[in-house]
Amino acid sequence: MNHPLIYLPSVDNTNTWAKEHLDRFGALGAVYSTSQTAGRGRLGRTWVNAAGQALYYSCVVHEDLVQPETLPLLSCLVTAKVLHGLYGIDCRIKWPNDLLLDGKKIVGILCEGVPDKGAWILGIGINLAQPQSYFDAAGLPNGASLLTSGVPVCAERDADVLAAGLTEPGFSAVIPRFAREGIAPFLSDYRTHCVNLGRHVSYDGGEGTALDVDTDGRLVVCDDATGERRIFTGEVSVRGV
Ligand code: ATP
Fold first, then answer.
1. CATH code at position 210
2. ipTM entry
3. Which of 71, 153, 230, 238 could pair with 218 as two cysteines, CB 3.0-4.6 Å apart?
4. For strand 30-33 and strand 5-7, is the pairing parallel, antiparallel, or unpaired?
5. Same domain, 128 and 229
6. Structural domain for 228, as ranges
7. If you take atom 13 of ligand 1, which residue's CA is the nearest one?
8. Tens digits of residue pLDDT in 25-37
9. Alpha helices (H) along the chain
10. Is residue 144 located within the same domain as residue 229?
11. Is the CB of 16 under 6 A from ligand 1?
12. pTM of the prediction?
């Protein structure tokens, strides 16, 4: 199927732009840019932007979803697989919504709902061509890009290729089933990619060992103080990988 893919030379924020232009997107349309000026993270955090050196991509889903809160998990999995297919790199997922390469963050994901329009926006930022000096200067010692990971990269070209691949086969191959069944059919794949399982994690309100991701997309933790606990996506930021 042909999904609309809109390129913008620069934009404040692709998620915001998508929200403001929902009528421009058909089924699984997407907008992308290599220059974003106002990146956002979860829980009011900032996503640091690099003019012309990264991909900022937002895909619009207009379907009824049985489990929208697990969209960040699905988005991580799709992005990891697209990156593997195109570049042969093995990103690990830091639950719920980050991708790490060699332990450093290369992708950030922010999924947002537009309830009155029945739409969901899957926002994905992928660091492409920033050198290590960029991350050092930005105070992001744990940031990584394709370039810092040794992948030959041309930001403009790779942004085009990645945006196309994220849409098709990427999200188009999984959204219909995800809409009906939620994250469960994708969980075993997610677990295989998840860096947290079996490791000690800390979170607001506690720390413990991450044991599993359940069918609601929650991180199952054996809390050092209180025993089993299930953490919702969006509830906390998990540290310690
Ligand atoms: P974390 O657990 O890494 O703090 P989070 O999932 O709680 O992340 P996000 O909204 O996903 O929060 O990401 C925002 C965080 O990511 C920022 O607080 C910063 O630490 C880091 N960050 C911001 N911009 C970049 C970037 N371009 N590359 C890598 N990391 C970044």
1. 2.30.30.100
2. 0.94
3. 230
4. parallel
5. no
6. 196-241
7. 41
8. 888 999 999 999 9
9. 14-20, 71-87, 132-137, 155-165, 172-181, 187-193
10. no
11. no
12. 0.95
